[in-house]
Amino acid sequence: MTLCHRGFLRFASILVFAAVTLAPSALLAQTSTAKSEQWIHVRVESKDHSGETVRVNVPIEMAEKVLPAINKNNLHNGKVHIESAHMDDVDVRALLDAIRTSKDGEYVTVQSNENDVRVAKSGGYLYIHVTDRSGARKSDAKESAAKVVSTKESKVEIKVPMKVVDALFSSGKDELDIVAGLRALAGSGDSELVSVKDSENTVRVWIDSKNIAD
């Protein structure tokens, strides 16, 4: 895979991280008087023998207030520090600006034995779909060369309003402004944001006006 394609994969991972960063804020508040505001939901389902399911439901308004109070690791004052604005020799800010100012379309399509990548913009949304089959183990010589004995395939699907992406990158260099992203997200209506499926877990992140998860 080329450096540019790895840059898109890293960009996708940053957006996933930005979405699930909200989860710790739920641990800091047990009640909320919010009634009609948007809620962000995170659901993680384990596929191991325990079959554990974790649900996190956080009012966006509450998360906006709580996140600036969390100062741990790379998260400070509602902003997440990223190691470098240039990742895998790709300038993410320049990449974002190019996508923002371009017409709707499918910008990147990569299909290989290990990865499928699709990056597109449509109707004010940025779509990133990644299928990673690099953990798959091929069969031995007695079986078909194309057959896979055990597949460890992971799929990541991201759908983010462009105004939210803009808000995330509106802070200083090498930072993601999570609070600004939340404020932009609150006005976006109900939306599925992130879906991750692999051999161990299924993760779903979405927003709606319900105070409970599905």
Low-confidence stretches: 22-35
| Percent in strands | 35-45%
* Strand line-up of the largest beta sheet: 2-1-15-14-12-9-8-7
Q: What overall geometry do the principal axes of the alpha carbons give? A: globular
Radius of gyration: 18 Å
How many strands in all?
A: 15
Helical coverage, percent range: 10-25%
What's a concise summary of this model?
Helices cover 23% and strands 36% of the residues. The chain is of the alpha+beta class and 214 residues long.
Describe the protein.
The protein has 214 residues and is of the alpha+beta class. The chain has one domain (3-29, 37-208). It is built from five helices and 15 strands. It has helices spanning 3-20, 60-66, 92-100, 162-168, 178-186, and strands at residues 39-46, 53-59, 75-76, 79-81, 86-87, 90-91, 105-111, 115-122, 125-132, 137-138, 148-150, 154-161, 175-177, 191-197, 201-208. It has an eight-stranded antiparallel sheet. A hairpin with a 3-residue loop joins strand 7 (105-111) and strand 8 (115-122). Helix 2 runs antiparallel to helix 5. The longest helix is centred in the N-terminal third of the chain and has 18 residues, at 3-20. The protein is globular. The protein starts with a helix and ends in a 6-residue tail after the last strand.
